[in-house]
Design brief:
The complex is a heterodimer of chains A (264) and B (277). By secondary structure, chain A is mostly helical. Chain A is built from 11 helices and no strands. Chain A folds into 2 domains: 126 residues, no CATH class; 121 residues, no CATH class. Chain A is globular, with a radius of gyration of 22 Å. Chain B is an alpha/beta fold and 277 residues long. Helix content of chain B is 30%, strand content 27%. Chain B is built from 9 helices and 13 strands. The chains are: A mainly alpha (264), B alpha/beta (277).
Chain lengths: 264, 277
Protein backbone atom coordinates (compact mmCIF):
# COMPACT_ATOMS: atom_id res chain seq x y z
CA UNK A 1 0.00 0.00 0.00
CA UNK A 2 1.42 3.40 -0.96
CA UNK A 3 0.78 5.97 1.69
CA UNK A 4 0.81 9.71 1.79
CA UNK A 5 4.28 9.72 3.38
CA UNK A 6 5.70 7.61 0.56
CA UNK A 7 3.98 9.76 -2.07
CA UNK A 8 4.91 13.13 -0.67
CA UNK A 9 8.05 12.31 1.32
CA UNK A 10 9.83 15.54 2.21
CA UNK A 11 7.53 17.90 0.31
CA UNK A 12 4.75 19.78 2.05
CA UNK A 13 1.43 17.92 2.01
CA UNK A 14 -2.02 19.37 2.71
CA UNK A 15 -3.22 15.81 3.04
CA UNK A 16 -1.04 15.33 6.11
CA UNK A 17 -2.43 18.59 7.53
CA UNK A 18 -5.87 17.05 6.99
CA UNK A 19 -4.70 13.88 8.73
CA UNK A 20 -3.69 16.01 11.71
CA UNK A 21 -7.22 17.42 11.78
CA UNK A 22 -8.53 13.88 11.83
CA UNK A 23 -6.04 12.86 14.54
CA UNK A 24 -7.20 15.76 16.71
CA UNK A 25 -10.85 15.53 15.67
CA UNK A 26 -12.38 14.23 18.94
CA UNK A 27 -10.95 17.18 20.90
CA UNK A 28 -11.51 19.74 18.16
CA UNK A 29 -15.12 18.64 17.80
CA UNK A 30 -15.75 18.99 21.52
CA UNK A 31 -14.17 22.43 21.70
CA UNK A 32 -15.85 23.72 18.55
CA UNK A 33 -19.22 22.46 19.80
CA UNK A 34 -18.91 24.19 23.17
CA UNK A 35 -17.65 27.42 21.63
CA UNK A 36 -20.34 27.37 18.98
CA UNK A 37 -22.96 26.79 21.66
CA UNK A 38 -21.74 29.85 23.59
CA UNK A 39 -21.69 32.02 20.47
CA UNK A 40 -25.19 30.84 19.48
CA UNK A 41 -26.43 31.61 23.00
CA UNK A 42 -24.89 35.08 22.78
CA UNK A 43 -26.46 35.68 19.37
CA UNK A 44 -29.87 34.35 20.45
CA UNK A 45 -29.72 36.42 23.60
CA UNK A 46 -29.12 39.52 21.54
CA UNK A 47 -32.04 38.76 19.25
CA UNK A 48 -34.55 37.32 21.70
CA UNK A 49 -34.00 39.53 24.75
CA UNK A 50 -34.37 42.89 23.06
CA UNK A 51 -36.94 44.08 25.61
CA UNK A 52 -34.75 43.09 28.55
CA UNK A 53 -33.09 46.14 30.09
CA UNK A 54 -29.80 44.39 30.86
CA UNK A 55 -29.54 42.90 27.39
CA UNK A 56 -26.40 44.73 26.34
CA UNK A 57 -24.60 44.06 29.63
CA UNK A 58 -25.29 40.33 29.47
CA UNK A 59 -24.41 40.25 25.78
CA UNK A 60 -21.16 42.05 26.58
CA UNK A 61 -20.35 39.54 29.31
CA UNK A 62 -21.08 36.58 27.02
CA UNK A 63 -18.90 37.93 24.23
CA UNK A 64 -16.10 38.72 26.68
CA UNK A 65 -16.25 35.11 27.91
CA UNK A 66 -16.06 33.96 24.28
CA UNK A 67 -13.01 36.19 23.74
CA UNK A 68 -11.24 34.56 26.67
CA UNK A 69 -12.26 31.11 25.48
CA UNK A 70 -10.67 31.97 22.17
CA UNK A 71 -7.44 33.13 23.82
CA UNK A 72 -7.20 29.90 25.81
CA UNK A 73 -8.29 27.66 22.93
CA UNK A 74 -4.76 26.14 22.48
CA UNK A 75 -5.25 24.38 25.83
CA UNK A 76 -7.37 21.79 24.02
CA UNK A 77 -4.18 20.28 22.60
CA UNK A 78 -3.15 19.11 26.08
CA UNK A 79 -5.87 16.47 25.67
CA UNK A 80 -6.24 15.56 29.31
CA UNK A 81 -2.74 14.10 29.73
CA UNK A 82 0.84 14.28 28.59
CA UNK A 83 0.37 13.29 24.96
CA UNK A 84 3.46 15.20 23.83
CA UNK A 85 5.49 12.07 23.22
CA UNK A 86 2.88 10.51 20.93
CA UNK A 87 2.39 13.80 19.09
CA UNK A 88 6.09 14.49 18.67
CA UNK A 89 6.54 11.09 17.04
CA UNK A 90 3.66 11.56 14.62
CA UNK A 91 5.23 11.44 11.14
CA UNK A 92 4.25 14.90 9.98
CA UNK A 93 6.66 17.74 9.19
CA UNK A 94 6.96 20.70 11.60
CA UNK A 95 5.62 23.07 8.95
CA UNK A 96 2.52 20.92 8.45
CA UNK A 97 1.95 20.82 12.21
CA UNK A 98 2.46 24.59 12.44
CA UNK A 99 -0.04 25.21 9.67
CA UNK A 100 -2.51 22.89 11.36
CA UNK A 101 -2.27 24.81 14.66
CA UNK A 102 -2.37 28.24 13.02
CA UNK A 103 -5.26 27.46 10.68
CA UNK A 104 -7.28 26.01 13.52
CA UNK A 105 -6.55 28.80 16.01
CA UNK A 106 -6.46 31.82 13.72
CA UNK A 107 -9.13 30.88 11.19
CA UNK A 108 -11.31 28.08 12.50
CA UNK A 109 -11.77 29.24 16.07
CA UNK A 110 -12.55 32.93 15.32
CA UNK A 111 -15.10 31.77 12.76
CA UNK A 112 -16.76 29.47 15.27
CA UNK A 113 -16.70 32.13 17.99
CA UNK A 114 -17.69 35.25 16.11
CA UNK A 115 -19.78 34.18 13.12
CA UNK A 116 -23.06 33.94 15.05
CA UNK A 117 -22.70 37.16 17.11
CA UNK A 118 -21.71 39.08 13.96
CA UNK A 119 -24.70 37.76 12.03
CA UNK A 120 -26.96 38.64 14.96
CA UNK A 121 -25.54 42.15 15.11
CA UNK A 122 -26.00 42.53 11.37
CA UNK A 123 -29.69 41.58 11.44
CA UNK A 124 -30.48 43.34 14.74
CA UNK A 125 -31.20 46.82 13.27
CA UNK A 126 -33.48 45.32 10.61
CA UNK A 127 -35.51 43.45 13.22
CA UNK A 128 -35.66 45.93 16.07
CA UNK A 129 -34.33 49.21 14.74
CA UNK A 130 -31.12 50.87 15.90
CA UNK A 131 -30.15 50.82 19.56
CA UNK A 132 -28.06 53.81 20.66
CA UNK A 133 -26.58 52.02 23.63
CA UNK A 134 -25.46 49.05 21.59
CA UNK A 135 -21.84 48.87 20.46
CA UNK A 136 -21.16 45.37 19.10
CA UNK A 137 -18.30 43.85 17.18
CA UNK A 138 -19.45 45.17 13.84
CA UNK A 139 -19.98 48.64 15.30
CA UNK A 140 -16.53 48.67 16.86
CA UNK A 141 -15.06 47.89 13.45
CA UNK A 142 -17.00 50.73 11.83
CA UNK A 143 -16.74 53.28 14.65
CA UNK A 144 -14.88 56.44 14.02
CA UNK A 145 -11.98 55.39 16.18
CA UNK A 146 -8.37 55.52 15.03
CA UNK A 147 -7.20 52.42 13.14
CA UNK A 148 -4.24 52.09 15.54
CA UNK A 149 -6.71 51.14 18.28
CA UNK A 150 -8.30 48.52 16.04
CA UNK A 151 -4.86 47.01 15.31
CA UNK A 152 -4.04 46.91 19.02
CA UNK A 153 -7.45 45.41 19.82
CA UNK A 154 -6.63 42.51 17.50
CA UNK A 155 -2.94 42.19 18.39
CA UNK A 156 -3.31 41.89 22.17
CA UNK A 157 -5.59 38.81 22.11
CA UNK A 158 -3.49 37.35 19.28
CA UNK A 159 -0.30 37.78 21.31
CA UNK A 160 -1.99 36.21 24.33
CA UNK A 161 -3.28 33.26 22.30
CA UNK A 162 0.13 32.59 20.75
CA UNK A 163 1.72 32.73 24.21
CA UNK A 164 -0.76 30.06 25.29
CA UNK A 165 0.07 27.93 22.22
CA UNK A 166 3.80 28.22 22.88
CA UNK A 167 3.35 27.06 26.48
CA UNK A 168 1.24 24.11 25.32
CA UNK A 169 3.88 23.07 22.78
CA UNK A 170 7.10 23.77 24.65
CA UNK A 171 6.58 23.61 28.39
CA UNK A 172 7.42 20.22 29.93
CA UNK A 173 5.56 20.24 33.23
CA UNK A 174 2.30 21.74 34.56
CA UNK A 175 1.42 22.89 31.08
CA UNK A 176 -2.10 24.07 31.87
CA UNK A 177 -1.11 26.17 34.89
CA UNK A 178 1.92 27.69 33.19
CA UNK A 179 0.03 28.38 29.97
CA UNK A 180 -2.79 30.12 31.85
CA UNK A 181 -0.43 32.18 34.02
CA UNK A 182 1.79 33.17 31.10
CA UNK A 183 -1.19 34.07 28.89
CA UNK A 184 -2.88 36.17 31.57
CA UNK A 185 0.47 37.76 32.38
CA UNK A 186 1.09 38.77 28.79
CA UNK A 187 -2.38 40.20 28.40
CA UNK A 188 -2.17 42.01 31.71
CA UNK A 189 1.17 43.66 30.91
CA UNK A 190 -0.09 44.86 27.54
CA UNK A 191 -3.42 46.06 28.88
CA UNK A 192 -1.78 47.86 31.79
CA UNK A 193 0.66 49.59 29.41
CA UNK A 194 -2.15 50.82 27.15
CA UNK A 195 -4.40 51.76 30.07
CA UNK A 196 -1.66 53.67 31.89
CA UNK A 197 -0.86 55.65 28.78
CA UNK A 198 -4.53 56.34 28.05
CA UNK A 199 -5.23 57.52 31.61
CA UNK A 200 -2.20 59.78 31.54
CA UNK A 201 -3.26 61.28 28.20
CA UNK A 202 -6.87 61.78 29.37
CA UNK A 203 -5.65 63.55 32.44
CA UNK A 204 -3.31 65.77 30.42
CA UNK A 205 -6.08 66.58 27.91
CA UNK A 206 -8.48 67.60 30.65
CA UNK A 207 -5.76 69.48 32.54
CA UNK A 208 -4.73 71.44 29.45
CA UNK A 209 -8.34 72.16 28.51
CA UNK A 210 -8.89 73.50 32.01
CA UNK A 211 -5.79 75.69 31.82
CA UNK A 212 -6.84 77.05 28.43
CA UNK A 213 -10.37 77.73 29.64
CA UNK A 214 -11.90 75.78 26.73
CA UNK A 215 -15.65 75.43 26.36
CA UNK A 216 -17.03 72.22 27.90
CA UNK A 217 -17.54 69.52 25.23
CA UNK A 218 -20.32 66.98 24.82
CA UNK A 219 -19.55 63.34 25.78
CA UNK A 220 -19.22 62.22 22.16
CA UNK A 221 -17.05 65.20 21.25
CA UNK A 222 -14.85 64.56 24.23
CA UNK A 223 -14.33 60.88 23.36
CA UNK A 224 -13.64 61.64 19.71
CA UNK A 225 -11.22 64.47 20.55
CA UNK A 226 -9.45 62.32 23.09
CA UNK A 227 -9.10 59.27 20.83
CA UNK A 228 -7.79 61.34 17.97
CA UNK A 229 -5.43 63.25 20.20
CA UNK A 230 -3.79 60.08 21.47
CA UNK A 231 -3.87 58.51 18.00
CA UNK A 232 -1.87 61.53 16.90
CA UNK A 233 0.93 60.37 19.19
CA UNK A 234 2.39 58.20 16.45
CA UNK A 235 5.57 57.36 18.38
CA UNK A 236 3.67 55.66 21.17
CA UNK A 237 1.51 53.62 18.80
CA UNK A 238 4.38 52.77 16.52
CA UNK A 239 6.37 51.46 19.45
CA UNK A 240 3.39 49.57 20.85
CA UNK A 241 2.38 48.00 17.52
CA UNK A 242 6.03 47.20 16.74
CA UNK A 243 6.44 45.53 20.13
CA UNK A 244 3.26 43.52 19.61
CA UNK A 245 4.29 42.48 16.10
CA UNK A 246 7.75 41.45 17.33
CA UNK A 247 6.19 39.52 20.19
CA UNK A 248 3.73 37.72 17.88
CA UNK A 249 6.54 36.85 15.45
CA UNK A 250 8.82 35.64 18.26
CA UNK A 251 6.05 33.49 19.76
CA UNK A 252 5.27 32.00 16.33
CA UNK A 253 8.96 31.25 15.73
CA UNK A 254 9.36 29.70 19.18
CA UNK A 255 6.27 27.54 18.61
CA UNK A 256 7.65 26.42 15.26
CA UNK A 257 11.03 25.68 16.87
CA UNK A 258 9.31 23.57 19.54
CA UNK A 259 7.62 21.58 16.79
CA UNK A 260 10.87 21.30 14.83
CA UNK A 261 13.13 20.21 17.68
CA UNK A 262 10.69 17.66 19.10
CA UNK A 263 12.60 17.83 22.39
CA UNK A 264 10.82 16.25 25.31
CA UNK B 1 20.62 -0.59 10.97
CA UNK B 2 21.05 1.83 13.87
CA UNK B 3 24.41 3.45 14.34
CA UNK B 4 25.23 5.33 17.52
CA UNK B 5 28.24 7.53 16.88
CA UNK B 6 30.01 8.96 19.97
CA UNK B 7 26.79 10.27 21.46
CA UNK B 8 27.00 12.59 24.45
CA UNK B 9 23.84 13.97 25.99
CA UNK B 10 23.19 16.00 29.15
CA UNK B 11 20.00 17.32 30.72
CA UNK B 12 21.31 20.86 31.10
CA UNK B 13 24.70 22.36 30.35
CA UNK B 14 26.26 21.81 33.75
CA UNK B 15 24.65 18.43 34.42
CA UNK B 16 26.55 15.16 34.40
CA UNK B 17 26.15 13.51 30.98
CA UNK B 18 23.28 11.03 30.86
CA UNK B 19 25.05 9.52 27.85
CA UNK B 20 28.80 9.77 27.62
CA UNK B 21 30.46 9.01 24.28
CA UNK B 22 28.12 6.14 23.45
CA UNK B 23 28.86 4.19 20.28
CA UNK B 24 27.32 0.98 18.93
CA UNK B 25 25.84 -0.62 15.85
CA UNK B 26 22.51 -2.40 16.06
CA UNK B 27 21.26 -4.59 13.24
CA UNK B 28 17.89 -6.19 12.77
CA UNK B 29 16.44 -8.49 15.42
CA UNK B 30 15.36 -8.28 19.03
CA UNK B 31 17.84 -6.46 21.27
CA UNK B 32 17.99 -6.27 25.01
CA UNK B 33 18.91 -2.90 26.46
CA UNK B 34 20.00 -3.51 30.03
CA UNK B 35 21.59 -1.38 32.71
CA UNK B 36 21.16 -0.28 36.29
CA UNK B 37 18.75 2.51 37.21
CA UNK B 38 20.07 5.81 35.89
CA UNK B 39 22.48 4.15 33.46
CA UNK B 40 20.96 6.09 30.55
CA UNK B 41 18.68 3.49 28.92
CA UNK B 42 15.62 5.70 28.57
CA UNK B 43 17.74 8.66 27.45
CA UNK B 44 19.32 6.45 24.79
CA UNK B 45 15.84 5.42 23.59
CA UNK B 46 14.83 9.09 23.43
CA UNK B 47 17.92 9.88 21.35
CA UNK B 48 17.18 7.00 18.98
CA UNK B 49 13.56 8.18 18.64
CA UNK B 50 14.77 11.73 17.87
CA UNK B 51 13.15 13.10 21.03
CA UNK B 52 16.45 14.17 22.57
CA UNK B 53 19.22 15.86 20.63
CA UNK B 54 22.77 14.84 21.57
CA UNK B 55 25.23 17.62 22.27
CA UNK B 56 27.92 15.56 20.53
CA UNK B 57 27.75 12.72 18.07
CA UNK B 58 24.70 11.44 16.25
CA UNK B 59 22.33 8.53 15.91
CA UNK B 60 21.79 7.32 12.35
CA UNK B 61 18.89 5.02 11.48
CA UNK B 62 19.02 3.45 8.03
CA UNK B 63 21.35 6.21 6.86
CA UNK B 64 19.27 9.11 8.22
CA UNK B 65 19.94 11.08 11.41
CA UNK B 66 17.37 10.34 14.11
CA UNK B 67 16.82 14.09 14.51
CA UNK B 68 15.43 14.26 10.96
CA UNK B 69 11.91 15.70 10.76
CA UNK B 70 11.15 14.17 7.39
CA UNK B 71 7.74 12.46 7.71
CA UNK B 72 8.86 9.46 5.69
CA UNK B 73 11.67 8.68 8.15
CA UNK B 74 9.59 9.55 11.21
CA UNK B 75 7.12 6.89 10.13
CA UNK B 76 9.70 4.14 10.56
CA UNK B 77 10.36 4.63 14.27
CA UNK B 78 8.20 4.34 17.38
CA UNK B 79 9.00 4.36 21.08
CA UNK B 80 6.63 3.02 23.72
CA UNK B 81 7.64 4.46 27.05
CA UNK B 82 7.10 2.71 30.37
CA UNK B 83 4.21 5.01 31.25
CA UNK B 84 2.97 6.70 28.16
CA UNK B 85 -0.27 8.59 27.68
CA UNK B 86 -2.26 7.67 24.60
CA UNK B 87 -4.94 10.29 23.90
CA UNK B 88 -8.40 8.90 23.25
CA UNK B 89 -11.09 6.97 25.08
CA UNK B 90 -9.79 3.51 24.26
CA UNK B 91 -7.13 1.82 22.17
CA UNK B 92 -9.51 1.25 19.28
CA UNK B 93 -10.26 4.96 19.01
CA UNK B 94 -6.58 5.81 19.36
CA UNK B 95 -5.67 3.28 16.65
CA UNK B 96 -8.29 4.73 14.29
CA UNK B 97 -6.83 8.22 14.72
CA UNK B 98 -3.13 7.39 14.91
CA UNK B 99 -2.57 4.45 12.55
CA UNK B 100 -3.40 6.59 9.48
CA UNK B 101 0.16 7.94 9.72
CA UNK B 102 1.77 4.47 9.59
CA UNK B 103 1.65 2.59 6.31
CA UNK B 104 2.97 -0.55 7.96
CA UNK B 105 0.10 -0.82 10.46
CA UNK B 106 -1.94 -4.01 10.07
CA UNK B 107 -5.49 -4.11 11.35
CA UNK B 108 -5.57 -7.92 11.46
CA UNK B 109 -2.41 -8.08 13.57
CA UNK B 110 -3.89 -5.48 15.92
CA UNK B 111 -7.07 -7.53 16.34
CA UNK B 112 -5.01 -10.68 16.85
CA UNK B 113 -2.82 -8.98 19.45
CA UNK B 114 -5.82 -7.69 21.37
CA UNK B 115 -7.31 -11.15 21.38
CA UNK B 116 -4.04 -12.64 22.60
CA UNK B 117 -4.01 -10.21 25.53
CA UNK B 118 -7.66 -10.97 26.28
CA UNK B 119 -8.89 -7.48 25.42
CA UNK B 120 -11.65 -6.22 23.14
CA UNK B 121 -10.06 -2.83 22.54
CA UNK B 122 -13.20 -1.05 23.72
CA UNK B 123 -12.13 -0.91 27.37
CA UNK B 124 -11.90 2.70 28.48
CA UNK B 125 -8.38 3.91 29.27
CA UNK B 126 -9.77 5.77 32.28
CA UNK B 127 -11.05 2.60 33.91
CA UNK B 128 -8.26 0.18 32.96
CA UNK B 129 -5.65 -1.18 35.33
CA UNK B 130 -2.04 -0.27 34.59
CA UNK B 131 -1.38 -3.81 33.34
CA UNK B 132 -4.32 -3.83 30.95
CA UNK B 133 -3.45 -0.36 29.74
CA UNK B 134 0.04 -1.62 28.96
CA UNK B 135 -1.38 -4.66 27.17
CA UNK B 136 -3.59 -2.51 24.96
CA UNK B 137 -0.68 -0.23 24.09
CA UNK B 138 1.56 -3.20 23.33
CA UNK B 139 -1.16 -4.75 21.14
CA UNK B 140 -1.22 -1.54 19.11
CA UNK B 141 2.50 -0.83 18.81
CA UNK B 142 3.29 -4.41 17.84
CA UNK B 143 0.81 -4.03 14.98
CA UNK B 144 2.44 -0.80 13.79
CA UNK B 145 5.12 -2.80 12.00
CA UNK B 146 7.64 0.06 12.09
CA UNK B 147 11.26 -0.69 11.16
CA UNK B 148 12.54 0.35 14.58
CA UNK B 149 10.35 -0.30 17.60
CA UNK B 150 11.58 0.56 21.06
CA UNK B 151 9.87 -0.72 24.17
CA UNK B 152 10.80 0.70 27.56
CA UNK B 153 10.06 -1.78 30.34
CA UNK B 154 7.25 -3.51 28.41
CA UNK B 155 6.75 -6.27 30.95
CA UNK B 156 6.38 -4.02 33.99
CA UNK B 157 2.87 -4.29 35.41
CA UNK B 158 2.04 -7.27 33.19
CA UNK B 159 0.68 -10.43 34.82
CA UNK B 160 2.11 -13.87 34.01
CA UNK B 161 -0.36 -14.46 31.16
CA UNK B 162 0.45 -11.03 29.78
CA UNK B 163 4.17 -11.75 29.78
CA UNK B 164 3.60 -15.07 28.03
CA UNK B 165 1.38 -13.37 25.46
CA UNK B 166 3.91 -10.60 24.88
CA UNK B 167 6.65 -13.14 24.34
CA UNK B 168 4.48 -14.99 21.83
CA UNK B 169 3.47 -11.81 20.03
CA UNK B 170 7.01 -10.54 19.69
CA UNK B 171 8.06 -13.91 18.29
CA UNK B 172 5.18 -14.02 15.80
CA UNK B 173 4.75 -10.40 14.73
CA UNK B 174 8.40 -9.41 14.27
CA UNK B 175 9.59 -9.17 10.68
CA UNK B 176 13.15 -10.32 9.89
CA UNK B 177 14.27 -6.84 8.85
CA UNK B 178 12.72 -5.20 11.92
CA UNK B 179 14.73 -3.96 14.91
CA UNK B 180 13.02 -4.19 18.28
CA UNK B 181 14.89 -2.82 21.28
CA UNK B 182 13.58 -3.80 24.68
CA UNK B 183 14.86 -1.88 27.71
CA UNK B 184 14.09 -4.03 30.71
CA UNK B 185 15.23 -5.27 34.08
CA UNK B 186 13.17 -8.44 33.67
CA UNK B 187 15.57 -10.19 31.32
CA UNK B 188 14.08 -13.63 31.81
CA UNK B 189 10.68 -12.72 30.30
CA UNK B 190 12.00 -12.58 26.76
CA UNK B 191 15.40 -14.16 27.31
CA UNK B 192 15.48 -16.81 24.60
CA UNK B 193 14.21 -14.37 21.98
CA UNK B 194 17.05 -11.86 22.17
CA UNK B 195 19.33 -11.70 19.15
CA UNK B 196 21.69 -9.30 20.85
CA UNK B 197 22.14 -6.86 23.67
CA UNK B 198 23.35 -3.42 24.67
CA UNK B 199 24.52 -3.29 28.24
CA UNK B 200 24.91 0.09 29.86
CA UNK B 201 26.64 1.25 32.97
CA UNK B 202 27.10 4.78 34.25
CA UNK B 203 26.05 6.54 31.02
CA UNK B 204 28.21 4.38 28.78
CA UNK B 205 27.67 1.26 26.73
CA UNK B 206 29.73 -1.46 28.29
CA UNK B 207 28.89 -4.05 25.69
CA UNK B 208 26.94 -4.14 22.45
CA UNK B 209 26.80 -7.23 20.34
CA UNK B 210 24.83 -10.09 18.96
CA UNK B 211 24.10 -13.45 20.51
CA UNK B 212 26.42 -15.00 17.95
CA UNK B 213 29.28 -12.80 19.08
CA UNK B 214 28.73 -13.57 22.75
CA UNK B 215 28.35 -17.32 22.24
CA UNK B 216 31.51 -17.39 20.15
CA UNK B 217 33.50 -15.87 23.02
CA UNK B 218 31.81 -17.07 26.20
CA UNK B 219 30.28 -20.38 27.20
CA UNK B 220 27.54 -20.56 29.83
CA UNK B 221 27.34 -23.73 31.88
CA UNK B 222 25.23 -24.63 34.88
CA UNK B 223 26.75 -26.65 37.72
CA UNK B 224 25.94 -27.67 41.27
CA UNK B 225 28.77 -25.59 42.69
CA UNK B 226 30.69 -22.48 41.67
CA UNK B 227 33.75 -23.21 39.55
CA UNK B 228 36.83 -21.28 40.71
CA UNK B 229 38.27 -21.68 37.21
CA UNK B 230 35.31 -19.89 35.62
CA UNK B 231 35.51 -16.28 34.49
CA UNK B 232 32.47 -15.66 36.63
CA UNK B 233 29.98 -17.72 38.67
CA UNK B 234 26.60 -16.78 40.07
CA UNK B 235 23.99 -18.49 42.14
CA UNK B 236 20.75 -19.07 40.24
CA UNK B 237 18.07 -20.71 42.38
CA UNK B 238 20.52 -22.96 44.22
CA UNK B 239 22.58 -23.88 41.16
CA UNK B 240 25.51 -22.01 39.66
CA UNK B 241 25.88 -20.45 36.25
CA UNK B 242 29.53 -20.43 35.25
CA UNK B 243 30.98 -18.38 32.44
CA UNK B 244 34.02 -19.74 30.59
CA UNK B 245 35.92 -18.72 27.49
CA UNK B 246 34.12 -20.47 24.62
CA UNK B 247 36.04 -23.23 22.96
CA UNK B 248 33.70 -23.46 19.99
CA UNK B 249 31.36 -20.77 18.61
CA UNK B 250 27.77 -21.22 19.73
CA UNK B 251 28.43 -24.22 21.94
CA UNK B 252 26.05 -22.93 24.63
CA UNK B 253 23.04 -20.65 24.77
CA UNK B 254 23.66 -17.12 26.04
CA UNK B 255 22.34 -16.38 29.51
CA UNK B 256 21.82 -12.62 29.23
CA UNK B 257 21.08 -12.18 32.90
CA UNK B 258 24.29 -13.91 33.91
CA UNK B 259 26.23 -11.88 31.35
CA UNK B 260 24.68 -8.67 32.71
CA UNK B 261 25.58 -9.63 36.28
CA UNK B 262 29.09 -10.58 35.19
CA UNK B 263 29.58 -7.22 33.52
CA UNK B 264 28.51 -5.51 36.74
CA UNK B 265 30.74 -7.67 38.95
CA UNK B 266 34.36 -7.26 39.95
CA UNK B 267 35.19 -9.65 37.09
CA UNK B 268 33.86 -7.25 34.44
CA UNK B 269 37.33 -6.49 33.12
CA UNK B 270 37.99 -10.19 32.34
CA UNK B 271 34.55 -10.61 30.76
CA UNK B 272 34.96 -7.55 28.54
CA UNK B 273 38.47 -8.67 27.54
CA UNK B 274 37.07 -12.06 26.60
CA UNK B 275 34.24 -10.49 24.57
CA UNK B 276 36.69 -8.26 22.71
CA UNK B 277 39.09 -11.06 21.80
Amino acid sequence: MTTINQQCGRSFSWERVGMLYKFNSPWIRKQASVYLLFSVIAALFLLLAHNFSGQMVVYGILTTVISYMLIFSPLIFIKGGDSRMVEQMVPVSPLEKFIFYMSYLLVGMPLVCYACPLIAEAVYPYLFGSNDEFVGYADVACLNIPSEFKVINVMIPLAAMLSCLYCVLAVRTNRIVKAVIWTIGVQLVMTVAVTAYTVKEAFMLGYNAGLNGDEPMSKDEMVSTFLHSIAGDSVFFMVLVALLVVYVVVMSCLSYRALYRRNL
Amino acid sequence: MIELKNITFSYGRKATPALDDVSASIGSGLYLLAGENGAGKTTLLHVMAGLAHPSKGECVINGVASTSVNPEELGHVFLLEERMYFPGRNIREFAALHSQFYSSFTEEVFEQNLKEFGLTGNELFSSMSLGNLKKSQLAYVLALGVDVLMLDEPTNALDIEGRIALRKLIATTMRPEQTVIVATHNVTDLETLFDGALMMRASRIEFAGTEELVSSRIAFEMSASPDPEALYSENQMGRYMNLYPALEPGETRVDWRALYSALHSDRSYEIISQLRK
